[in-house]
């Protein structure tokens, strides 16, 4: 930027950066939300509603359509009528746009689709980032421009919009889902005032002139016969041939504006490198760190960052390579089963073939579904290139012990820049940790001259799952596009994590560890695992605790501990003088909660003051350093749970080898019962004498964590201590005993059961988890050994239905979820013979997130068989299941009829077969 002009720096995420530029250039935006692109459409919509003007002096006209296919159709129509039009999408959403993308490109229309690139649902749905979607769209005729960081998103979005106006070729501008779309970085904003002077206004006029217009009508979208179709397609060639030059020129102009230089292919590394990696997207940032690290350690390596992937300019590519290069590894963040190689690898290989240049080219895959890509992995790729016979078609970042594609990783390298401070925060989905860290990184970014980066890793629980916030800040630009593996500061916001996760993995010597827990040092001796205590002492950590939950409850903030923990971070990290930090925090509170009323603002302000006063440093004994290893509890669990689920739950799933999984993405059901998350703060306690045995509590529980039990006298007699019961009421159950059993570690503490309880004096009272756990767990385990007893109650009543075993239990749905109780009820009524076609959405996440599957089986081993196809085809998918089941049942009936014609059939079998044939459409009788 010109020296005279004040630079505008802001801490924003990649989606906001793309939307900022797209808004400027759009008359119209036709949108449809899909993770992780949704925030782009949302902010554009919000800006339009707030009256923000584009470069044409108008508010953008935003239309949310019924699907991505509809959005692409609307984009096509809007372009045809002369408006500059944008859209935002990802994954299958982009695939649904493909038919219209061919049309838009075929008709040579200027447009930009901003894509937060994401995996495409195949053997599983993944909402995370890779390039499968954009690669599936690479044949549409769209030009494709890749950005690898939030700043690049801002800058190259500008290049894409400027270039499409000149080139009359539409662009996909893509960046990695989550890693870039959701990463917060401090970036220099493009000022809308600077844009008009860059725009090709003649191109704008040309597009408007080409619009459908009855005053000078033309026709497009004809049907053509074999005589001309081929030639008209080839007529577009000059437009595509011009794209690389146009993009190059626009990059130069954007570089002149911003001071950041971009080329179609950017080379980094030593000028005489022999080994070079070629890749695009955010992984190139991590690879660049590795290149600098390796070159400062005596190696001669380089990296080509591909910016313009389509059209692929062979000339520009080869010109960007040092002449000394002998070996190249091309890294693709995609997988094309059955292909000879992935797309970028094929292009690069063909480029050398085209120019008869002899360079060894190998290709590999990395980072599918947001698998972390680190400098250590980039080094492994360079090490492979140094082998006598480098492995081709390799993978990096996993252990493939089946087809042996993976590269071995050497010792981890630390390629982060000097002086970088790295902080990790373990939170619980919905506890405000992520929101607080987003605020924190913005406070640091906006109030200091430091560069900042915030990345937020979630599991797929809808709420109540683990979140890990990764915050970095320092004096140098941050290219570390991977999770923090060497932390200066780690905070654990939930005490139940201490023995579930390796919280302190990678913490630096003398680092800081903050634990939110109500425990004294004596209690910590018992509650903290030896491994944690040992790391604290061995690494001489500064260890602090705060009882944030009690403080929050006392102030009236319930379980919202975010403000307290954020204040603690500012106090202990020293990144900003603490008084300034408190002022910024209080200003942020005013801004965030101002609309909710004065009392909410003041409660949060109090949280800040209390946190400063109540954080305490733990004076732990040095003897912790010599504690013996923890002895793992022996559990009788299925192999899958032991070998796959447990490592995944402990966040060690990255280390699982390929052989651990069933090809095709098949997973066992009934696994949530092994999870025992223990995330509730309060759980219900049953007061037997108040209970009227209505079972409404069980009916409304979203997690099947409270259940009515009918036990015999004998069973009551042999029960563990504390097994309180009441004489069962209701005809047919007179000899039985009734009990409400709470599953304290599966309860999420929503309180629905206690709220609904209609007893005159409530028969359920919410109590702290710690007061219930030890007492209830043995009782719950005993209940699990008892047979399901229905007491003869009609299963089609509220009371009777709840004596049926729920075949949906302990899902990762949000606390208080409104749909899971109904789904659970359906499984209680029909679950033993259900096949479920589950549309993509909330229910496919709580219902089918590997490895924790809430659909389970009854005492006979029968239960729902579940599958998910897509977001848009579920009715058809389910219909297909009906067709197949009907056809197969008819074949069975045919076979039974043929069998019954035989004379040698034993009478018992004959009766069974005739009975089934007669009642085959009656669910109950056909089972007999
Ligand atoms: S508090 Fe919520 S999750 Fe826990 S048992 Fe009651 S209804 Fe179920
Ligand atoms: S809702 Fe209350 S009264 Fe009814 S069964 Fe549950 S605890 Fe008993």
Task: Explain what this protein looks like in three dimensions.
The protein has 928 residues and is an alpha/beta fold. It folds into five domains: 9-206 and 226-258, Rossmann fold (3-Layer(aba) Sandwich), CATH 3.40.50.970; 265-396, Rossmann fold; 421-626, Pyruvate-ferredoxin Oxidoreductase, domain 3 (3-Layer(aba) Sandwich); 672-828, Alpha-Beta Plaits (2-Layer Sandwich); 875-927. Helix content is 37%, strand content 16%. It has 30 helices and 29 strands. A nine-stranded mixed sheet has the order 1-8-17-18-16-19-20-21-22, with helices on both faces. Strands 3-2-4-5-7-6-12 form a seven-stranded mixed sheet, sandwiched between helices. A hairpin with a 7-residue loop joins strand 17 and strand 18. Helix 6 crosses helix 9 (237-258). It is globular and about 90 Å long. The model has no long low-confidence stretch (mean pLDDT 95). The structure holds iron/sulfur cluster (2 copies). One iron/sulfur cluster binds at residues 686, 691-697, 740, 756-757, 759, 763-764. Residues 686, 691-697, 740, 756-757, 759, 763-764 line the site of one iron/sulfur cluster.
């Amino acid at each position: 930027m010109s020296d005279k002009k004040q630079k505008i720096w802001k801490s924003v995420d990649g989606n906001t950066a793309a939307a900022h530029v797209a808004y400027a250039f759009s008359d119209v935006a036709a949108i449809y939300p899909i993770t992780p692109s949704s925030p782009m459409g949302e902010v554009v919509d919000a800006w339009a509603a707030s009256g923000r003007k584009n470069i044409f002096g108008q508010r953008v006209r935003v239309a949310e359509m019924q699907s991505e296919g509809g959005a692409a159709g609307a984009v096509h129509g809007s372009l045809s009528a002369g408006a500059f039009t944008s859209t935002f999408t990802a994954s299958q959403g982009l695939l649904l746009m493909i038919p219209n993308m061919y049309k838009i490109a075929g008709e040579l229309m200027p447009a930009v689709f901003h894509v937060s690139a994401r995996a495409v649902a195949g053997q599983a749905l993944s909402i995370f980032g890779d390039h499968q979607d954009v690669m599936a769209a690479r044949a549409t005729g769209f030009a494709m421009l890749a950005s690898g960081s939030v700043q690049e998103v801002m800058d190259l979005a500008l290049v894409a919009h400027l270039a499409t106006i000149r080139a009359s070729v539409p662009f996909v501008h893509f960046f990695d889902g989550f890693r870039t779309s959701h990463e917060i970085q401090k970036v220099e904003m493009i000022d809308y005032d600077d844009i008009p002077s860059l725009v090709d206004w003649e191109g704008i006029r040309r597009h408007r002139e080409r619009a459908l217009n009855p005053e000078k009508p033309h026709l497009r979208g004809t049907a053509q016969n074999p005589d001309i179709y081929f030639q008209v397609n080839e007529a577009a060639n000059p437009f595509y041939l011009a794209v690389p030059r146009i993009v190059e020129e626009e990059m130069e102009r954007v570089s002149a504006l911003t001071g950041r230089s971009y080329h179609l292919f950017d080379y980094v590394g030593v000028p005489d490198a022999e080994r070079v990696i070629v890749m695009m997207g955010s992984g190139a940032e991590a690879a660049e760190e590795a290149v600098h690290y390796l070159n400062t350690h005596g190696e001669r390596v380089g990296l080509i960052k591909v910016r313009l992937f389509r059209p692929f300019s062979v000339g520009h590519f080869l010109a960007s390579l040092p002449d000394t290069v002998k070996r190249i590894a091309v890294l693709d963040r995609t997988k094309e089963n059955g292909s000879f190689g992935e797309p970028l690898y094929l292009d690069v290989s063909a480029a050398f073939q085209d120019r008869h240049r002899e360079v060894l080219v190998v290709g590999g895959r990395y980072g599918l579904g947001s698998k972390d890509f680190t400098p250590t992995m980039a080094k492994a790729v360079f090490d492979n290139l140094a082998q006598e016979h480098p492995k081709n078609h390799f993978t990096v970042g996993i252990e493939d012990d089946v087809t042996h594609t993976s590269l071995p990783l050497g010792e981890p390298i630390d390629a982060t820049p000097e002086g970088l401070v790295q902080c990790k925060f373990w939170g619980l989905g919905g506890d405000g940790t992520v929101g607080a860290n987003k605020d924190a990184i913005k406070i640091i970014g906006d109030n200091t001259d430091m560069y900042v980066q915030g990345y937020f890793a979630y599991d797929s629980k809808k709420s109540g799952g683990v979140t890990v916030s990764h915050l970095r800040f320092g004096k140098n630009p941050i290219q570390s596009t991977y999770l923090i593996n060497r932390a200066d500061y780690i905070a654990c916001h939930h005490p139940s994590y201490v023995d579930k996760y390796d919280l302190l993995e990678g913490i630096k010597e003398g680092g800081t560890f903050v634990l939110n827990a109500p425990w004294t040092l004596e209690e910590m001796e018992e509650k903290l695992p030896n491994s944690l205590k040992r790391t604290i002492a061995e690494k001489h950590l500064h260890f602090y605790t705060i009882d944030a939950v009690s403080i929050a409850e006392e102030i009236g903030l319930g379980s919202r501990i975010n403000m307290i923990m954020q204040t603690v971070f500012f106090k202990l990290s020293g990144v900003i003088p603490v008084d300034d930090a408190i002022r910024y925090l209080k200003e942020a509170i005013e801004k965030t909660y101002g609309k909710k009323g004065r009392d909410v603002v003041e409660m949060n302000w109090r949280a800040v003051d209390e946190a400063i006063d109540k954080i305490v440093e733990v004076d732990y004994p040095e003897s912790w350093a010599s504690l013996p290893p923890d002895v793992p509890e022996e559990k009788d669990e299925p192999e899958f749970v032991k070998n796959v689920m447990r490592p995944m739950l402990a966040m060690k799933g990255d280390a699982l080898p390929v052989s651990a999984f069933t090809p095709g993405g098949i997973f066992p059901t009934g696994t949530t019962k092994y999870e025992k998350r223990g995330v509730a703060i309060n759980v219900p306690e049953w007061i037997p004498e108040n209970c009227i045995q209505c079972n409404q509590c069980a009916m409304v529980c979203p997690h099947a964590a409270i259940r009515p039990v009918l036990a015999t006298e004998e069973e009551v007699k042999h029960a563990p201590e504390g097994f309180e019961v009441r004489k069962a009421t209701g005809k047919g159950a007179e000899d039985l005993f009734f009990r409400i059993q709470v599953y304290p570690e599966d309860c999420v503490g929503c309180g629905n059961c206690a709220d609904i309880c209609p007893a005159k004096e409530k028969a359920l009272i919410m109590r702290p988890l710690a007061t219930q756990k030890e007492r209830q767990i043995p009782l719950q385990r005993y209940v699990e050994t008892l047979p399901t007893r229905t007491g003869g109650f009609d299963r089609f009543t509220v009371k009777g239905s709840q004596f049926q075993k729920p075949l949906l239990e302990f899902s990762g749905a949000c606390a208080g979820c409104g749909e899971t109780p109904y789904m659970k009820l359906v499984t209680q009524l029909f679950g033993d013979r259900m096949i479920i076609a589950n549309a993509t959405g909330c229910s496919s996440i709580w219902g089918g997130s590997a490895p924790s599957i809430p659909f389970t089986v009854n005492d006979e081993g029968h239960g729902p068989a579940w599958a998910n196809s897509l977001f848009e085809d579920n009715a058809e998918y389910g219909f297909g299941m009906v067709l197949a089941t009907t056809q197969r049942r008819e074949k069975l009936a045919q076979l039974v009829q043929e069998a019954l014609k035989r004379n040698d059939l034993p009478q018992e079998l004959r009766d069974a077969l005739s009975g089934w044939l007669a009642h085959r459409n009656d669910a109950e009788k056909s089972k007999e």
